[in-house]
């Protein structure tokens, strides 16, 4: 199906009490809690594997002068040491996935320089520690703020890096109320629970990888380029994945090195897992950013000029940039507009997508700038946003498919008790705690990706669905089972969902908030085709046919499925993006509300409560959707208050490269958090009339927290995260200013 026209009435609309929309438990839950869900490193499908351990560079720029593997090769259990001297020939880089160990150049700290394979993990680790590498070290560039002048306009961008409308400079200069602020966000790590891991084995000129990968078809294509193979000669299997957040969108060193070592070992399986420290330094990260935001408004709060400029960085030779200003192009109305992105290449690990790339850091800055403008106008920040609600997309000049940002703000304000808020900063106390509340909008692009699915209905009533889709812990197995069950009128327990294998029909994979919509729509189309085959065996009217309870009912007549499917029926379905993505501006929307307490002596910030109100089209499963939204909000709290990879500016290394020192929110940091959804169907989006949710929860969440901190203290911090040392500096500055006054 080509999504070029709005969708009419569908079987999901005709059966509102069916499985879709019910908050059922995860169908894969029992497997996970009993340990029967095998993740990549636990798989036993490939027998007698060798265990690999990666050796990484301890300089950030330079060349390998010498690598001594003699001692390691003689150690007990060692079967192979892979270096630049004996690595198999490799092809070209594709989708940020490139060959490894091909030369002696070091581009960043943590770059793989060797792989040891042994009979056990412990033997491989011990031998890896015995490898001695001598470097000719060179001076590198590690600090974005020092490289702003060298940053360039990105090339080969999927979206235009710059946009302009009207005359921003003139509009800004003539605005009676202006904000010109600089915000910074730090390097962040995905820090998923499961480290990257792969088991790879060759059979002739074909390679199979059981691996932790969010998008197997994309990984298959990239690895085929690296291994110089036809795409069909590369098979990826990713049945269960312990989190990704974008860090497993591309195959990483574990996959590439495991496969290369297996090839040198005549096809013997090789198993590689990255250590937690290597996950930080040897895979991808979220880039740090420097952002300048300028807002001009009249005295009634109507925006007349918006500019959002962003600088980010990635590894040498790469072109990925953080699209921080993209969401600004559609968020609020203003006649004069400017957005720009610039990219610096530093000697740091590869930057790539991390949960809500662009919006996550862009809205941290932009939604705080909106709060600053509201303060300058003495206007309620919700009212400011409402007054600048656009009638259509401000830059594309097309209608929104659906847009309920204002209803989310209003319903959130009602539920949160916003009307009781004291707008004067630093005016509310609860004993030792300074108390404040903040708000932020949420918006996330709603894309659709090509996907296919195959379904089969057997005589015993079992419905089997196959596709190369993945479940990274978000509930994909569950919502797809619900869609299939409703479309064919069987119980969810009768659905057998087989995911994560590129031998099955291609799918979008998990990422970009397009996974559920894309794979679910392909499954919908496959089930629709199967319904057509079944109805063709009857004289029932297909226009009002309802599949439920193992029967087809049309008017006052019905038939049992088991009497119609013979020895079994099979069908395939496909979804493709269409013109609707050009005809309509498609986003999911929401609003965040946060209340914080700030200790008046220590500067400690404590989240007291938080609410998110969202719209995401048809909610396929309220339980998994709420879980995703709250998870995103927690991500936002971390970005606001604690998450930051500390880059050593002398050496280009990451100082805090493990979960002991890279702080993410834990239960003690998170009191009452709730997420609710407003009713919505988007018939321009896909056959499910749903929208993406996985990343929406993080968009703007941290800004609501930061705005609440300002309301509590009167201290505006533009350098994320908002750690207590920055609060204390603000206390000192206020005291100094008061003494001078």
From TrEMBL:
Residues 1-29 are annotated as: Disordered. Residues 34-139 form the Aldehyde oxidase/xanthine dehydrogenase a/b hammerhead domain. SMART domains: Ald_Xan_dh_C (SM01008). InterPro entries: Ald_Oxase/Xan_DH_a/b (IPR000674), Ald_Oxase/Xan_DH_a/b_sf (IPR036856), Ald_Oxase/xanthine_DH-like (IPR016208), AldOxase/xan_DH_MoCoBD1 (IPR008274), AldOxase/xan_DH_MoCoBD2 (IPR046867), AldOxase/xan_DH_Mopterin-bd_sf (IPR037165). Pfam families: Ald_Xan_dh_C, MoCoBD_1, MoCoBD_2. This is Xanthine dehydrogenase. It comes from Methylobacterium indicum. The lineage of its organism: Bacteria, Pseudomonadati, Pseudomonadota, Alphaproteobacteria, Hyphomicrobiales.
